[in-house]
Design a protein that fits this description.
mainly alpha; Helix Hairpins; 84% helix; 0% strand
């Protein structure tokens, strides 16, 4: 009887994880990032303590997101009308997820930055010295994307809504320009983090969809790379 109850408890726990993964967009993002980080761990000589810290950090983010989901579901079940206390509870739970995510970024920076920085410098130098055919390919990709966007996504205004996101394009273009001008991995990282925050704000504000923001950022990066290739 005990073994059956134990198996049932295990199955219920798995169902809870699967439910959070299927219904929560942020949970999918956390899982994708976790898999990516664990994959990169294969290529770095991490100590046992560093690997344990990474596993604990990943677990903390996933657990926080699941607790947040449980709290939101419980509140939605109990409260049918707007209640300021329910809002406070949801905001506090979301704040816990944010703190765990910020902690994860700091842990990743402390563990990986010194290992990734030399690679970043090599990539930047190669990109700045890349041959002309890279510029031609970039131009063709931008033209191709522009044609698709103009034909299929005639919606919104130049600065609000529609495909692509102008704010995301400008933000990522600025971050790319900073990268070329400084050739410093840390400053480049800060620039792209700010660009990501701009893109995230457009999605969270329901002004753009994820695809509009993604293509806008990609468009801005390609255009800026093209310009720097021409004037270098």
């Amino acid at each position: 009887m005990k073994s059956r109850n134990l198996i049932d408890s295990f199955n219920y726990a798995i169902e809870g994880i699967l439910h959070a993964f299927k219904t929560q967009r942020n949970m999918k993002v956390h899982f994708a990032i976790a898999i990516l980080v664990l994959f990169f761990c294969l290529f770095f000589d991490l100590s046992r303590v560093e690997f344990v810290v990474i596993l604990f950090t990943i677990s903390l983010v996933l657990i926080s997101e699941m607790i947040n989901t449980a709290i939101e579901t419980t509140i939605d079940m109990m409260v049918k009308n707007y209640n300021p206390l329910a809002k406070v509870a949801k905001n506090v739970a979301a704040g816990a997820v944010l703190i765990s995510a910020i902690n994860a970024v700091l842990v990743a920076y402390l563990i990986f930055f010194d290992r990734v920085n030399p690679w970043t410098k090599i990539i930047l130098l190669k990109l700045r010295e890349s041959p002309i055919h890279i510029t031609v390919i970039s131009l063709l990709v931008v033209v191709f994307l522009t044609v698709i966007l103009k034909v299929h996504f005639k919606e919104g205004t130049p600065m609000r809504g529609g495909m692509p996101s102008a704010h995301s394009a400008i933000a990522f273009a600025t971050a790319t320009a900073i990268t070329f001008m400084t050739a410093n991995a840390f400053i480049a990282t800060l620039g792209f983090l700010l660009a990501l925050m701009v893109a995230e704000s457009r999605v969270e504000g329901k002004i753009h969809s994820f695809s509009q923001v993604f293509l806008g950022g990609l468009f801005g990066i390609l255009i800026t790379v093209l310009i720097f290739q021409i004037i270098k």
